[in-house]
Structures are given as C-alpha cells and as structure tokens.
Amino acid sequence: MGIIVQKFGGTSVANAEKIRVAARRAIRAQQNGNQVVMVVSAMGHQTDHLVDLAKQITDDPSGREMDMLLSTGEQVSVALMAMAIHSLGAQAVSLTGAQIGIRTDSSHTKARIQSISTDRMKKLLDDGKIVIAAGFQGIDEDFNITTLGRGGSDTTAVALAAVLNADACEIYTDVDGVFTTDPRLVAEARKMDRVSHDEILELASLGAGVMHSRSIEFGKKFNVPIHVCNSQSFSDEPGTVIGSHSESADRAVSGAALTKNEAQITIVGVPDQPGVSYGVFSKLAGVNVAVDMIVQNAGADGSADISFTVLEDDLTKALQASKNAADELKAKGVEHDASLSKVSIVGLGMATQTGVADRMFRALSDEGINIEAITTSEIKVSVLVKRDQALAALRSVHGEFELDRAPKDRVKFGEKPTATRKADAADIVARLQRMEDLAIESVSLDEAQAQMTLFDVPDKPGISARIFEAVASEGILVDTIVQSIGRDGLADISFTVPRKSVKDAEKVMLSLSEELGGEVKVDPEVAILTVKGVGIRSHTGVGLRMFKALAEAKINVEMVSTSEIRVNVVVDAAKGAAGLAALKAAFADVLG
Ligand code: ASP
Ligand code: MG
After folding, report:
1. Which of 71, 150, 154, 212 is the best mutation target for the ligand 1 pocket, counting ligand atoms within 8 Å of the beta carbon and taking the most?
2. Ligand 1, residues 11, 38, 153: which to mutate, most atoms within 8 A of Cβ?
3. Which domains does the chain have, with CATH numbers?
4. pTM, two decimal places
5. More confident site: 255 or 204
6. Which of 15, 39, 52, 465 could lock 362 by a disulfide, CB 3.0 to 4.6 Å apart?
C-alpha cells in the first residue's frame, strides 16, 4: 500500500467548512487504497495574529517563548481536523511535532530538522488511521518546542514524504499551481503542468513564492515529486507537479520572475588581486546581509569593480559594510543605486541551446529598456533594470518566449513521474542525519574556456542584444555572462566561450568594437570553477567559503556570477586545477 502526504495550508483550513473539505479529501485518498498522512498549517492568519500578540507584549520576545506561542496555531488545526475526520466516520490521530519525533537543532524560530522517527506514524497508519501531523514544528534535544521558520509546514510535508518514502506529496493551497510568472503582474501567465525542482528553486526565491524554498530543496534531494493543487477545486483539477523534469523538452525558457526591490552597490577600483572578493563578502556576511547577483569584472587598468545586489531593506547595513571593506582594500569608492528591479528567465532547456540570452536582451531593447547589469547561470538569465520599467520588462520577456502558450510536446499530467528513490530505510535514515545540511552536489572545473570582454561600450538599450545576437549568429555557445554597472554612460560586458571558439569570437568582438566603440580584451586561457548545490540560497556563506578558499590558495578571481543553485568563478586556466583542489577541500564536509 502506498503512502500519500497531503499538506493543507492556512487558507485551506481557515474555517470549519474548509476543514471538512480537507478531511473528506484525505478520507477519499484512504478509500482509494492509500495510507494518508496529513500535514496541517495554522488556520488562516492565526500565525500572524500570534506574532502580533507577542509584539503587543514586547519588542524583543525570547525565541523559545515565540516558538511555544507559534506552535499552538498548528495544534489547534490538527485537533479540529481529527475531529472532522472522526465525525465523517473514519479514524484519525493528531500528533504534534514532538509526538511524531521531529528533532531539530535549537535555533528557535528558524530551526532545522535533524531527524524524524517514523515508527509511531507507521504503526498508526498500519492500524488504519489517518495521521494528522502539525506542520512547522519540532522539538530540540532538551524538549524545547521549535519552529522551522514562516511557511515551514511545506518543509514538514516534504520531509515526512521523504522519510516515509511516500508516493506523492500533495500541497493543497489557494492557487491552482505554479505559473509561468506571477498572474497578478502578467494577465497571460499560464499554469504549468510540471516544472523541475531546479527551475522552481531558481524561481521561488525570485519572487514566485509558491512554496517555501527549503521544502523544494528537500524534494530535490530526496526525489519527492510534489503536486501543488488548489484545495477549493472540487473536480480534482490537476495542479502542477514539481519533479525532475521540465514541462517541455524543447523549450529553452519555462518561466519568468520579477524581484522588485533590489539595490545595487558597486565598490569601484579595488586592486585586482587574490583575497579581494573575500574581503568584501566577509564584511557583508558579518552584518548578515544576503548578497545576490555578484558581478565582478576586471577593468582595463588592473583594478576591478565589484558590484552586487541586496534587498533594498538591507541597503543601509550593506552600504556601511561596503564602505568599511572599501577603506580596508583602498578602493576608489562605493556607489549605489536603490531604484532597481531584477527580471529573470529560467529554463532547464537553456543549458543546451544558443540564442536565448540575446532574445531576452532584444525583447527588452525593443521596449526601450536599458539593462543595468546581467548575470547568468546554466538555467537562468537575470538582468537588473530601472524599477519603473520592471513590469514592462517582465511582460515583454514573457511574451517573447510565448510562455502563455502550452508547449506542444508537454507531458500529460497523469503520467507518473518516474521515482528513482529506493525504499531503503537505512539509507534514508543515514541521509536524514544530515538532511538539512548544505548539500553541495558538485564542485567542477572547466579548463577549456576563454573570456571575452568589451570595455566601455555605450550603456544604452540594445547593446547587449546586438553583442549576443552577433555571437549567437556564429553558433558560439556563451556560458557565463557578466555585465558590469554602467558608469559615465559606459559599461563593460564579459562572457566566456569554449576555447575552441576563441578565434571566431574574437573576430565578432573586433567587428562589434568597430560598430559600437569600446575596446576588446581576449583572455584565451581561463577556467570556470563551479559550485553547484541545493541550499546555496538558504545557507549564506557558500560564496564566502569559495572566496576564502581561493584567497588562501592565492588564486585571483577574474569574474564571478551567481544564481540560486550555482556560483561560477572565472580564474586563470593555469590555476584551475589548484582552484578545484582548494574548493574540494573547502566543501569536503558537505559534498554529498
Ligand atoms: N503557520 C506557519 C506560518 O504561517 C507555518 C505555515 O503555514 O507553513 O508561517
Ligand atoms: Mg503557510
């Protein structure tokens, strides 16, 4: 008999009627021959209400007492859910996090799961009971109640599905599934039938906000297919499956996202030498600021500019830390722009197709939108644009890649995603011990790359489009792209190409510099070091560890490009092997 985990969010248990609807759904799943574990959130806005009550008492509640308070929300809903199931004539037992045996560390209000015992749940399921688990909570070594961070019930659900080796983890919520972009921003947004874990990881923190990112990390790590469905749909309309495949094998782009409130900081004129990136990002980590879209570009004069984005709310803290770093490194100065937004396209198919980035840049240029900075990963291209143009930018890329239209080759929802998980309990338990640890999938080296830079091109719409169209028309596959912030009306654009394409790429660059102005630099022998993994986003400090290891090995960082699931660093090809060794050592404890 298969196990199904069904998670009901706050809106899906907001009142007695909705609790009954959820209860019926679970009973139906049981009658269809499954063992059913429900994971339930607090009713409606109960958690917000509890947070508010605490605020009325004190500005600075202790974490332990906060968790004691917040965990009550879920305790109410599991009890009511059990009563609803009883009243419908089926058997059910509600359990708190402690009763299930969800052990966490002691970081109150953002605890991480360390282990889950399945014995009690399995016994209850074998006895024919529906198990109703309180989401979002656990217990530490000393029996203190802990919570997993806001939205943590998703994580509870996926974690239970993983340890129970469930057939499916169904997430019932108030939306129909995962959309190609936020439907509140773009009316043409379309519900996807399926989307890959990697795509949603890149999208989730980009503002799609469908599910708690950590729950997707779990899903990926333990290969749990996650079905996102609307709890109010009575027809059991299919939602979206988050699994190992993307919706279409043909399409380069699956979704687009907007992060509205970004600020960019640039440290101008730092010496281009080992340890500089580490110097900057250790200062930022020291004040707990998460950094995104790191763009570092060595300038023509032996100095480099390092820019990165932070959320606008963190700007004051981040600027102070940046100024400290700039003083220590004897940089020329610190600049910032607080009125930016980030627009990104994501797609597994991008990794193998040319001419994706340039299409995005062309679509933006057709709207007269200037690109302030670019970073790329294997499956994502992000650009910074002025905030007042962000919505137009999102709409134009959504249209350009025809995301409103279902792909022709889509896999039908009903087909079961192939589960590669094995029911090897010992293996899962062993992996569980480190379940929430940072999982670095791989540290890799590509030594056969070349770096092309065009310095001082005009910073205006259409320039990036022109450059990457010219490169794509020669059939040259571009990997990491970085465009630095424009200053004095000029910008620098760097990217890497396979070394075998360096002659062709150089020809294109020279003719581009005649056309657009600017100066070409070709670095025929560079290597790309890549750290790829799950949890890079929620574990700050991955970049920091990388920069530290490279600084200690005295390896200069020529260019950096970040995304949610990977950090790319370009170094001199002669230093590639040493860099790889340094990174492997630095991540040895978490390499899966
Ligand atoms: N009730 C908690 C919250 O509102 C956990 C959850 O709903 O996932 O954050
Ligand atoms: Mg919730």
Report:
1. 150
2. 153
3. 3-247 (3.40.1160.10), 256-404+439-586 (3.30.2130.10)
4. 0.85
5. 255
6. 465
